[in-house]
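Predict structure. Chain length: 431.
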Amino acid sequence: MTVEVLPAPVQVGYLVPEFPGQTHGFFWRELGVLAQLGIAADIVSTRRPGLNGARADWSDDAASVTTYLASASAPVLMSIVRELRTIPPARLVYVLRQALVMAREGASLPPHATRLRAIVTQLAWLVLGVRLAGLARERRWTHVHVHSCGNAASIAMFARLLSGLPYSLTLHGPLADYGGNQEAKWSNADFALVITEELQSHVRRSLSEALPDTVRVVPMGVDTAEFTRSGPYVPRTAPGTFRLFSCGRLNPSKGHDVLVAAVKKMVDDGADIQLTIAGEDEAGGRGYRQQLERLIDNLGLRHRVRLLGSVPGSAIRKELAEAHAFVLASHAEPLGVAIMEAMCMEIPVVATAAGGVSELVLDGETGILVTPGDPETLAYALMRLMADPPLCAGMGSAGRNRVSSLFGHRRSAEMLAQLAIAARRSSWSRR
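Prediction complete.
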């Protein structure tokens, strides 16, 4: 993809909720490509991620250059006051009324406490929208890109209504995961990106006339150079241990309990299995992880299943290099960067045919797709791989080729840069 170079720099805000989080490595790589393309992107986030923060090689650098909107410091409060003074009273009244409408539409009406909470929430996003508009003015942004269609999108929308600041969206999953007021968020955006064809069809059915003129499908991707083996993939041969690796935050949606149950079935059938799971829960190990640990203990799998917690990318690559197969039992996965990383490392994958995974994994060619929530089917697919080393090697090689050709990490950044430049050029033509 060719990206046009403009005679003046394009400076944008890059808004990611609770950055840097466990699954945010893709955003950090995308920012690096944007810089190569001449897009000066300032990282902005709603707040610090806390217990769910990334423990990656790049996370400290990312946090040090991120501006957090939800800060109560004196300079931030003064910035909000300064920006409010630039907004015409009539415009501010109009946006306040819009916030009340959105509170009514985005929350159940009874009881009154719920309605009040919805109003307070919308006003909070409005205030942060003022803060975002102020940052755009100070830093001369021409655009804001929001990697969310949730609360961060509401903040950008209010900044647009208050100051005219253009913004765009990336949708990473079903609209239902991102709260209400989707029509307002999308109709005020200049353009939008979605990561799968399935999601594009979903938003076209759900939002129809509320969509911006430009909605493009651009999958998330991985740095294929970073995820490259130092030696050839060697399938498991009997009677050795079949080493499985899974990577995903510890959340019921990821189906880790289903995977553990599948491992139990395989062990009961006489298989020698070792499963390693990388990822942590949203409470820093004090939430769903404890339920999963109890399940592992109750099934007598403590010596078979290892929970790594949140680990840096170097540890992920090491586990992938040593694994015989990668497995992700999510109940629904929009696409699956972790699956891409495994495919890049030439490892056969078993994943659930839910969400957009079928756009990444070709069943029977680059991996095996199974029904979500079914431990027996999952166990059967893994046993199939364990018993067929040539199949493992063939799927691993095909998977690497597929990701290299279609899911490189530069694609999304190049599309974002192209559309941001086009929007900037359009604004110049109207001067």
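Summary: The CA atoms of residues 264 and 301 lie 7 Å apart.
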